[in-house]
Amino acid sequence: MFFAPKEIKTETGESLVYNLHRTMVSKEFTFDAAHHLFNYEGKCKSLHGHTYHLQIAVSGYLDDRGMTYDFGDLKNIYKNHLEPYLDHRYLNESLPYMNTTAENMVFWIFQTTSKYLSEERELRLEYVRLYETPTAFAEFRREWLDD
């Protein structure tokens, strides 16, 4: 059951920021791609494909609208700088030379996304998680850059 609002709120001129702490937002994407693995003696040595599931998480302090990072801006980074290399591609040809394991790919995605993330409000890429199957993923986290 839905109720109609009694009134439509309007801005009062006061701050729209309620949360003063760092907050993380994440957006998820799906893409299909083919690859094969080098130096591997299993069935993945042969050409095969996956429907990958990608999560990209960004943290920062809220802007004057009360937003950490616009989900649309994260989508634009994916659409313009990641998707052309990932979706419906043969990854061994479209990515830089590497064994196209989820572990290598997730680091490339992290590096590429970082290049296009705005530096305002101390925004930082926290992690990238790449599912190769519904139950298997690789992840790269910002804090591991120092390891």
The average pLDDT score comes to 94
Using the coordinates above, name the CATH class of the domain at 53-146.
Alpha Beta
What's the CATH superfamily of the domain at 53-146, by name? Answer: 6-pyruvoyl tetrahydropterin synthase/QueD
Q: Uncertain spans, ≥5 residues at pLDDT below 50?
A: none
Total beta-strand segments: 5
CATH topology call of the domain at 53-146: Tetrahydropterin Synthase, Chain A
Largest pleated sheet = 5 strands, mixed
Active site: 44, 88, 132
Binding site for Zn(2+): 35, 48, 50
Enzyme class: lyase
Keywords: Lyase, Metal-binding, Queuosine biosynthesis, Zinc
Give an overview in words.
With 147 residues, the protein is α+β, with helices and mostly antiparallel strands. It has a domain at 53-146: Tetrahydropterin Synthase, Chain A, CATH 3.30.479. Helices cover 24% and strands 30% of the residues. Strands 3-1-2-4-5 form a five-stranded mixed beta sheet. A hairpin with a 2-residue loop joins strand 4 (124-133) and strand 5 (136-141). Helix 1 (71-86) packs across helix 3 (102-116). The protein is elongated and about 65 Å long.
